[in-house]
Amino acid sequence: xxxxxxxxxxxxxxxxxxxxxxxxxxxxxxxxxxxxxxxxxxxxxxxxxxxxxxxxxxxxxxxxxxxxxxxxxxxxxxxxxxxxxxxxxxxxxxxxxxxxxxxxxxxxxxxxxxxxxxxxxxxxxxxxxxxxxxxxxxxxxxxxxxxxxxxxxxxxxxxxxxxxxxxxxxxxxxxxxxxxxxxxxxxxxxxxxxxxxxxxxxxxxxxxxxxxxxxxxxxxxxxxxxxxxxxxxxxxxxxxxxxx
Length: 244
Description:
This protein is α+β, with helices and mostly antiparallel strands. It folds into three domains: about 5-70, Winged helix-like DNA-binding domain superfamily/Winged helix DNA-binding domain (Arc Repressor Mutant, subunit A); about 85-130, no CATH class; about 140-240, SH3 type barrels. It contains nine helices and eight strands. The protein has helices at about 5-20, 30-35, 40-50, 80-95, 105-115, 120-130, 140-145, 150-165, 235-240; strands at about 55-60, 65-70, 130-135, 165-170, 180-190, 195-200, 205-210, 215-225. The strands form two sheets. Strands 3, 4, 5, 6, 7 and 8 form a six-stranded mixed sheet that branches. Strands 1-2 form a two-stranded antiparallel sheet. Strand 4 and strand 5 form a beta hairpin. Helix 4 (about 80-95) runs antiparallel to helix 5.
């Protein structure tokens, strides 16, 4: 088994253990679909997990499933780099919001995550954190008209922001007018609970702030961009034109 294959299998075994820990039973076929492998591979993985001492319950008969015994701990948490980055940035956002509840141990969690990164990865994460801004809470008027953006848009925006690549979007203003735009997502701004993308808009050839929940469609391009300083975008943010 090659190193890459071994790493993939270890990761799959971790995800499989987490899935089996859930309250509902899963069939081998369902697990195979979720993890993108064959049912034979899942069967081999389950056999290996049993050999390692994991107590896996199985229901016989049609419609039966498998589940890790409720008293079995999944073990230490292993995160992929992208997952760790997301968690670290989420912690940074929570800390910046100065919420008094449930934050006592965030510093310890953050330090442990940072310690798991190489020096170069730490610098990359620090650069990402510096691109996230926290503003004042949105007005009740703005919140009343907000809705959750589609998952596909969120994922695409997330990828473009992290990879620092341009994004093609379909944007709808408050008056319902839609336009196609090519933007470079330089910064993200949270005015709780509304997220905005602070971008260079190629349609108007200048800085612009877009409400994320008004982005109706998004496609990431392969064109990268160089980060401009925050000062370039401050006039757009200070216009308080964030409901458009």
